[in-house]
Amino acid sequence: MSDLHTPDSASPYDALLLLSFGGPEGPDDVVPFLENVTRGRGIPRERLREVGQHYFLFDGVSPINDQNRMLLDALRKDFAEHGLDLPVYWGNRNWAPYLTDVLREMVTDGHRRIAVLTTSAYASYSGCRQYRENLADSLAALAAEGLALPRVDKLRLYFNHPGFIDPMIDGVLAALQSLPRGVRDGAQLAFTTHSIPTAAADASGPPQGHTRDGEGGAYVRQHLDVARVIAEAVAVRTQVAERPWRLVYQSRSGAPHVPWLEPDICDHLEERHEAGAPAVVMVPIGFVSDHMEVKYDLDTEATAKAAELGLPLARSATVGADPRFAAAVRELLLERAAAERGLRPERCALGALGPSHDLCAVGCCPARAPRPAAAGADSPYA
Predict the structure, then answer these.
(1) Residue 377: inside a domain, yes or no?
(2) Are residues 249 and 127 in the same domain?
(3) Is the pLDDT of residue 214 over 90?
(4) What are 115-156's pLDDT values in tens digits?
(5) DSSP structural state of residue 7
């Protein structure tokens, strides 16, 4: 472990890229942003304006970009405090600052070996493989401009890193304290994440873990493991041994006839109310920060549903720019750097699944139509 904290401990990396989804920052941005998100699907602008109504409730501003700015500041602060002289950049998939522009800037600044952290903690096509495809697209664009291409390595999935889980445990405890005393000990936990098509869930993770029976593959397994770790820690800290919990889903989109992961959070709240639950705490374990899916689907829609039912409800905090998460990112970077130097660093992970892989295998989280993807065993940019 001592080698992870020497002045050259980040070697061979010379920069870190924070790669995220992006979001609109004003009313005029909403439809163009949604056009970026849905490009290639032929969705009319009129329909996109309808879909974007929840953004207009927040003056057309998604909180995700400001949250990424805060995380960027937290990473730079943590790196500086630990003597890690490594620049940190930020780029998005669907809005400014765009990934291709940021990679071009990094190349112009002289960077040739880049570690990438995505703001998605779990295995899935949209949460992992698609970001690798975005990186490949951007590298292809830079190659067409005649630029020297850097090597990019995506840091491993961090869903079970203590620096991701521990802040969420504290968030659940704070949410429980916010409930009326009379319902606090009986409050149930609804661990929530983005619903995805069951076919995509079954195909998530390395090929050997794929399923064909709606069981969810790595995506569901990873969320269940995180939920279990948090529930057990909360039971110990609150001294309430029997506190029911369930993994539920939100933010479904797409054609109604396509099966997606269920139950939906609002359906779950209705079912828990009918079953006599005294209160529910929503725990958004699938999200790094309080972006639109949290602010609208949970804080607006689900909260309105609970009020309609007369069900006491609280929502726990996401990790955001918590210093423990920033420290976890540093640890993930240093462990990968050590591994690239031929060492065998200690890899922190809670729960039953162990640390995730460094290099995505061929066939990991596949798309419907194969596309080039960087930072994996099948990368054309080794």
Answers:
(1) no
(2) no
(3) no
(4) 999 999 999 999 999 999 999 999 999 999 999 999 999 999
(5) T
pTM of the model: 0.96
Using DSSP's 3-state secondary structure scheme, residue 155 falls into coil
263 Cβ contact list (under 8 Å, min separation 6) = 248, 249, 271
How many Å apart are CA 99 and CA 236, to the nearest integer?
Answer: 43
Shared domain check, 40 and 94: yes
Number of domains in the chain: 2
- Do the beta carbons of residue 37 and residue 108 sit within 8 Å? no
Contact 291, 71 (CB under 8 A): no
Residue 145 burial class via C-beta count within 10 angstroms: exposed 0-12, middle 13-18, buried 19 and up: exposed
Task: Tell me the C-alpha distance between 175 and 184, whole Å.
Answer: 9
Residue range 37-60, pLDDT digits in tens: 998 877 888 878 888 899 999 999
List, in sequence order, the alpha helices (H) in the chain.
Answer: 30-37, 45-51, 53-56, 64-81, 99-108, 130-144, 162-178, 181-184, 198-202, 217-238, 265-274, 292, 303-309, 323-340
Is 351 contained in some domain?
no
Number of H helices, E strands in the chain: 14, 8
Given this model, what pLDDT does residue 368 score? 84
